[in-house]
Give the backbone structure.
Amino acid sequence: MKLLSDLIGINTYDGNYREMIDYLVKALNAIEGCQVHIQEISENKANVIGVFGEPDLVINCHMDTVKPSNAWSHDPLDMYEKEGRVYGLGACDTKGNIYMVLKALEETQPKNLMVLFSVDEESGIKTGVKYFLESDLKEGIHRAVVCEPTELRLVNKHRGYYSFTLEDFAESAHSSTGSKGAIIKAAHNIIRLDGLGFNVGIIEGGTGGNVVSQRCTYRASLRTFERLDSVVEAIKKSSSETKITNRFNGPPLINEKPLFKGEFHEVDFWTEGSLFQEEGINTIVFGAGSIKQAHSEDEYVERAQVEKGIEIIKGLIMADL
């Protein structure tokens, strides 16, 4: 599995994708019938796109991984195998799936297919997929497979993910006055938001223990099937004086009539599949690995899943729908 070892060995968590871009371009150029396009985004950031014929279907994998912690027992960029498991940063999320796609392309003769290797899924506010969907490159695409760790299940439904920066304000004063500051306001709002299912992950505010706080900023997120306007309205009802700034708008994936054959499932995590679906592209999510291993120390994917996944992708590529 040298190809997978190479992919895992490339750092794609610090924002510089140049090495991975060059590697993928070389790999796609080696496949007969593939026309390679580079969608430049910034100096060291670009989507890599392979086109076969006149594509109706796009298969998407994101290149980036989360930054590894110091708790890994081995070098996260050095792939190794043990007891049927392939370990390494991105093994399941989602370089293992890039490997499966490239191997499937090598072993088939795609006629009308696009593959999209995109950037910034893990960290970007405006991701590579969003740049792609704003471009003419999506013209003619009617179906999409977005690769994420679903344990080889075909997924047609998941919740949306919305992230907000919230700010509460108050008049600054000496703490002896007994005035209620912005942090106290925020504390009450956070408790109400918790009751609505929000996660609050960051809180910042205040200047001193003897000063009534003038400002408190906090980060809240929600996973739901509701739309963005409904979520914002829920925050306003809970915190009428709070300033609300939308950081990330990830709508839910709801594909009631998948243009693919198979049994379909729902997952709890968000994917960029919903962005394709929002553009009118019939989309499912699929991939090897488990979300339980994604973003974890000593991340791994089952080798048997990878091998089976290659065959499933080949079937998706060659299916006569």
Notes: Residues 6 and 79 are 8 Å apart (CA to CA). The radius of gyration is 22 Å.
